[in-house]
Specification:
Blueprint (H helix, E strand, L loop, with lengths): L2 H16 L3 E3 L8 E3 L1 H9 L4 H27 L3 H27 L24 E2 L2 E2 L14 H9 L2 H27 L8 H27 L1
Antiparallel strand pairs: 1-2, 3-4
Helix pairs in contact: 3-4, 3-6, 4-7, 5-6, 6-7
Length: about 220
């Protein structure tokens, strides 16, 4: 055997042992495991789940309501500090909505929230102004998803002005942010969900940023 061939054979034998191990994180409460380079590559290509897709689709709708709330704040609120925080929230959530749409499109997934056969995901506000026996139905108190304001809450917010609006806005946005944090927690309860790199960074950001904003809103609320 030539010297070069011997070196190549030795490298082939040593490479698998010398290569650093690749760890795949386990689900919450579960240990990590060592996987091969081929397995890591396969995971990188298919590292999202149906729950991940549904989370992104739902969170777009969730964020859209927060942006709508800030739109009302601009014309109906009166506290400049609340308005400044609201604008920051809207800018952040609009950027995140674009990120979520791009994530879904890159994976050939719909950017629209899907409804299951039980009707879950139906817009409860779509019938707010319908009539029954000649009388308008009251807006529903049932929110579309965790943390979102119900159609009735949105109606009360839209009717408020000044300090009353600011208080309702902060109370509602605290509820809204906590709902988003809870949605992240629910996602991570599913095996293999939330492991996509971009999605993982996004969910970590949601928890960190919105937890901080909740504290700021609670402080503002106590000053009103």
């Amino acid at each position: 055997m030539s010297y070069l061939a011997g070196l190549m054979a030795t490298a082939a034998l040593l490479a698998p042992q010398d290569a650093p191990p690749i760890f795949q994180p386990g689900a919450p409460g579960q240990p990590s495991r060592i996987i091969t380079a081929d397995q890591a590559l396969a995971l990188a290509r298919t590292s999202y789940t149906a729950e991940d897709v549904q989370f992104m689709q739902h969170m777009i709708v969730h964020h859209a309501q927060a942006v709508e709330m800030v739109g009302l704040l601009e014309t109906q609120g009166e506290n400049s500090r609340v308005k400044l925080l609201g604008r920051r929230i809207a800018l952040s959530q609009e950027a995140e909505m674009e990120l979520m749409r791009s994530w879904l499109i890159a994976r050939d997934q719909s950017t629209e929230m899907q409804m299951d056969h039980s009707g879950h995901g139906m817009d409860h506000g779509s019938m707010d102004h319908s009539a029954h026996a000649g009388h308008a139905m009251a807006p529903s108190e049932t929110p579309l998803m965790p943390g979102m304001l119900s159609p009735a809450q949105m109606a009360r917010l839209a009717a408020a002005r000044g300090n009353e609006f600011d208080r309702l806005f902060l109370t509602g946005m605290i509820q809204h942010h906590q709902g988003a944090i809870d949605m992240v927690g629910e996602l991570l309860e599913h095996p293999d969900a939330g492991r996509d790199t971009l999605l993982s960074d996004f969910t970590n950001s949601v928890v960190a940023d919105q937890s901080t904003e909740i504290l700021r809103m609670q402080s503002l609320l106590s000053d009103l």
